[in-house]
């Protein structure tokens, strides 16, 4: 199993190209199930989760093709993916595939919308929390589907097709919003989603669905209205840039000091995180090319944050921000409100010398002047990258094992950081 070796102490200086968003790419790929024509996605990141989802989709009958490199294309530019679900040959998403990636559960929406039936394995829990699927089930039932749970599978039937309805979520859920929005595109009549997620990835999916012929209004606000249509067609869509990758590298620069242009990054996708970083002492400017992050000389100021649905501070940046706060000049409090168990990085950061205590959903981080390199490992994607950030500032060598978590969501992390002067390499076991 590969690991990442980091020798801390170097500033980051240069340009980091920001990839297409993983969390937009996954629902966009799933949207290909809604039409028998080809959906072409550009700016697709090269990630393990993307590869995993192509396997799941191909099991339903989706053909996929990745365009090769084109003249003048940089190695780090996104790829073009063509997905064609001419015929859905299987409406079952089996446990062996769904259990590897929770987002694959979202196929339930398009499958039942187009085929009027689906049998999708329950995704089960995961490292960051129990993550139930009750909002999906209640939402599909509101659209007229009959639902039963049989031997670990959600079996959904809508013999005459789905019917538009009002679907109100008890709390904001990104995945349930994606799923019900996709399902409603082919339902009869109007669907209103109330307390919808406003995340940029929901907006990106809505844009793509509209390009495919869907009638959707209000994506990006808490109320989304969808007028069902009888069929969708193929489209071209460019995946929005990854706000979590952007925030992660911005925090890395705030940690090490230096001056980096995050090329292709969009500030409006992560304004709350950028505001917090400014309060820590980082200088952040929006340029025509992306976002420039600088920090020189001065120490890191402690700032309290609470994770919130968009436009608040994202839970997917909580671990990285905690790594930054371990070196702050004082004490900060970090409150996790989205997932009940998203503090696994705390024990590992402590191995590097961080002082963190947890009380319920709140971590208190007492900044230390020095972190010391050590072998560490993490059990999820964002926790893993937080250890890399800490390692970049630690004295000596840090080895982060179980790198497959990083490969799920960060495209060529070590290449991007090496180009900016970090001492970081992948070690193959
Ligand atoms: C998406 O997960 C993201 N995943 C997560 O990113 C992200 O952390 C999360 O949204 C929150 O922003 C993808 O986009 C692929 P939710 P999702 O449904 O949709 C509860 C990463 O690191 N809930 O918005 O699964 C749930 O337990 C990943 O890239 C129910 O109770 O998250 C959680 O507490 C990790 N019942 C809250 O809602 C339901 O039926 C929000 O979860 C559904 C959700």
Secondary structure topology:
Blueprint: E1 3-7, E2 12-17, H1 22-31, E3 38-44, H2 48-60, E4 63-66, E5 79-84, E6 92-93, H3 95-98, H4 108-115, E7 117-121, H5 134-142, E8 146-150, E9 153-157, E10 166-168, H6 174-185, E11 190-194, H7 200-211, E12 215-217, E13 223-227, E14 235-238, H8 243-256, E15 258-263, H9 271-279, E16 283-286, E17 290-295, E18 305-306, H10 318-325, E19 331-335, H11 345-351, E20 355-359, E21 362-366, E22 375-377, H12 381-393, E23 397-401, H13 404-409, H14 413-418, E24 423-427
Parallel strand pairs: 2-15, 3-14, 6-7, 10-11, 18-19, 22-23
Antiparallel strand pairs: 1-23, 1-24, 3-5, 4-5, 7-9, 8-9, 11-13, 12-13, 15-17, 16-17, 19-21, 20-21
Ligand EPZ binds at residues 23, 26, 102-103, 129, 131-136, 171, 173-176, 201, 315-316, 338-339, 381-382, 409.
Walk me through what this model shows.
The chain is α/β, with parallel strands linked by helices and 429 residues long. Helix 1 runs parallel beside helix 2, helix 5 runs parallel beside helix 6 and helix 8 runs parallel beside helix 12. It is globular and about 65 Å long. Bound molecules: ligand EPZ.
Features:
alpha/beta; 4-stranded mixed β-sheet; 31% helix; 429 residues; UDP-n-acetylglucosamine1-carboxyvinyl-transferase, Chain; 2 domains; binds ligand EPZ; 24 strands; single chain
Number of domains: 2
Strand content: 25-35%
CATH topology of the largest domain: UDP-n-acetylglucosamine1-carboxyvinyl-transferase, Chain
Which regions are unreliable across 5 or more consecutive residues at pLDDT < 50? none
Could you tell me how far the N terminus lies from the C terminus, measured between alpha carbons in angstroms? 5 Å
Report the strand count: 24
The CATH homologous superfamily of the largest domain: Enolpyruvate transferase domain
Structural class designation: alpha/beta
CATH architecture verdict of the largest domain: Alpha-beta prism
What is the mean predicted local confidence, pLDDT?
A: 95
Molecules bound to protein: ligand EPZ
Number of helical segments with 4 or more residues: 14
Give the overall silhouette. Answer: globular
Q: Profile the largest sheet.
A: 4 strands, mixed
Helix share of residues?
A: 25-40%
CATH class group of the largest domain = Alpha Beta
């Amino acid at each position: 199993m590969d690991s990442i070796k980091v020798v801390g102490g170097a500033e980051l200086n240069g340009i980091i190209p920001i990839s297409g968003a993983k969390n937009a790419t996954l629902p966009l790929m799933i949207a290909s199930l809604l039409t028998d024509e080809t959906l072409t996605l550009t700016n697709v990141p090269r990630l393990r989760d993307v590869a995993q989802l192509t396997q799941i989709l191909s099991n339903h009958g989706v053909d996929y093709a990745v365009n090769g490199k084109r003249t003048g294309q940089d190695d780090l530019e996104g790829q073009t993916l063509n997905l064609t679900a001419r015929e859905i040959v299987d409406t079952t998403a089996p446990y062996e595939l769904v259990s590897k990636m929770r987002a694959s559960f979202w196929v339930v929406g398009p499958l039942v919308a187009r085929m009027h039936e689906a049998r999708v394995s329950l995704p089960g829990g995961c490292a960051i929390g129990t993550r139930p699927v009750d909002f999906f089930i209640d939402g599909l039932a509101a659209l007229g589907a009959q639902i039963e749970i049989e031997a670990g599978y959600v079996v959904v039937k809508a013999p005459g097709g789905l019917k538009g309805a009002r679907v109100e979520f008890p709390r904001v859920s990104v995945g349930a919003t994606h799923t019900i929005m996709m399902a409603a595109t082919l339902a009869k009549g109007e669907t209103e989603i109330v307390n919808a997620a406003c995340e940029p990835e929901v907006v990106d999916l809505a844009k793509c669905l509209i390009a495919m012929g869907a009638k959707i209004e209000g994506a990006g606000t808490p109320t989304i209205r969808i007028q069902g249509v009888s069929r969708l067609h193929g489209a071209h869509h460019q995946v929005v840039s990854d706000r979590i990758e952007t925030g992660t590298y911005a925090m890395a620069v705030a940690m090490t000091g230096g001056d980096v242009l995050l090329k292709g990054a969009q500030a409006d996708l992560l304004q709350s995180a950028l505001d917090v970083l400014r309060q820590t002492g980082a200088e952040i400017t929006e340029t025509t090319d992306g976002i420039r992050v600088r920090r020189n000389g001065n120490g890191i100021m402690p700032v309290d944050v609470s994770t919130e649905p968009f436009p608040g501070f994202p839970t997917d940046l909580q671990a990285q921000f905690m790594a930054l706060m371990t070196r702050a000049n004082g004490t900060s409090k970090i409150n996790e409100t989205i997932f009940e168990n998203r503090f696994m990085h705390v024990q590992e950061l402590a191995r590097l010398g961080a002082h963190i205590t947890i009380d319920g959903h709140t971590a208190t981080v007492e900044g230390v002047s020095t972190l010391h390199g050590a072998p560490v490992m993490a059990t999820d994607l964002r926790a893993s990258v937080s250890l890399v950030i800490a390692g970049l500032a630690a004295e000596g060598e840090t080895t982060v094992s179980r790198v497959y978590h990083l490969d799920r969501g960060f495209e060529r992390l070590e290449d991007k950081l090496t180009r900016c002067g970090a001492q970081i390499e992948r070690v193959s076991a």
